[in-house]
Amino acid sequence: MRVLITGAAGFLGSHLCDYFLGKGHQVVGMDNFITGKPENLEHLSGKQGFSFIRHDVSDYIFVPGDLDAVLHFASPASPNPNSPYGYFNLPIQTMKAGALGTHNTLGVALAKGAKYLLASTSEIYGNPLEHPQRESYWGNVDPISTRSVYDEAKRFAEALTMAYHRFHGVDTRIVRIFNTFGPRMNIDDGRIVPNFITQALEGKPLTVYGDGQQSRSFCYVTDLIEGVYQLLESTEHYPVNIGNPQELTVLEFAQLINKIAGNDAGYEFNPAKRSEGDPQRRQPDISRAKEILGWEPEVTLEEGLRLTIDYFKDALVTR
Ligand code: NAD
Ligand code: UDP
């Protein structure tokens, strides 16, 4: 296959590039580096089968040659209002990546007769009233909150993807990604994993927003990428949750990271730093992924965290 991966210089996009190249496919990466970094692709420079186009997906996209698949991962992804990389601080760019970027990438897939995979998110469930979240749940999203720039752009993106499938017959897939972590996360994007790990490595108390009773479920990146690939290889057009169902409160997560990193500084509560609309609970129901793809996560949270801590030790040196 020859595949276009948008958001290629980001956390998930760069792992996708590695995975597809490792399977012998050709990859065209595309990114404008708004939250991602050229360093994430440095190891691929000059590699056979890999090419890169620096481009904003919100503008018309031109890719020379044939394409067999388009994977649209370009979008700011961190909700942290305290980070310049957080989508609260990139509101228009986030809406454009989800809306215009999805339109343009679907247009590329249609023109090339390529399969299409949209990176959607558990955020489309909003602050969920159903737990765990199944794909059949429609969500609880405030359309005008500061958080809505991400949530509503992704909901629009899902709707547009289904419209291209139904109206134009594009062979589409939608993956609803739950919190995923691992090496190459942006150290400064303010998400819980880079924040807690860097704080723990620096011997500082971990910044627990709110009372820490909100929950998340964390999936290691290699499991996520495997699930995405299997979804692309399937014939499923409806959304599929990919994530690790092991649910922890933010406080439990802080304690676990301190234990693994050997940090004695504990944690401190920062109620004011919790973002507007921060979901109270989040856990994927992965029955559909198991049934349709035969997929489930294999890497334990502890194992994934150790690998990620090793990465951040090096990243801190060059920060
Ligand atoms: P990331 O910030 O590391 O990567 C996103 C990449 O997209 C960056 O390299 C950024 O520069 C690029 N980008 C953003 N806007 C662009 C534009 N207009 N044109 C070109 N490139 C652009 O984030 P990530 O965690 O790798 O997320 C990747 C995708 O997966 C996003 O679509 C995100 O919504 C989705 N997702 C991620 C998670 C997660 O836990 N990591 C969860 C749910 C959904
Ligand atoms: N969080 C926290 N301290 C931090 C960063 C995040 O307590 O330093 C909390 C945040 O309020 C949220 C959870 O951790 O409840 C996950 O946040 P993240 O930014 O990783 O993304 P989200 O899961 O909300 O998309």
Walk me through the structure:
The protein is an alpha/beta fold and about 325 residues long. It has a 7-stranded parallel β-sheet with strand order 3-2-1-4-5-6-11, with helices on both faces. The protein has a domain at about 1-180 and about 220-245 and about 285-300: Rossmann fold, CATH 3.40.50.720. The chain is globular. The longest helix is centred in the first third of the chain and has 22 residues, at about 90-110. The two termini are about 35 Å apart. It has helices at about 10-20, 90-110, 150-170, 190-200, 220-235, 250-260, 285-295, 300-319; strands at about 1-5, 25-30, 50-55, 70, 115-120, 170-175, 180, 205-210, 215, 220, 240, 245-250, 265-270. The protein has 8 helices and 13 strands. It is about 35% helix and about 15% strand. Nicotinamide-adenine-dinucleotide binds near residues 33 and 35. The site of uridine-5'-diphosphate has 15 residues, from helix 4 and strand 8.
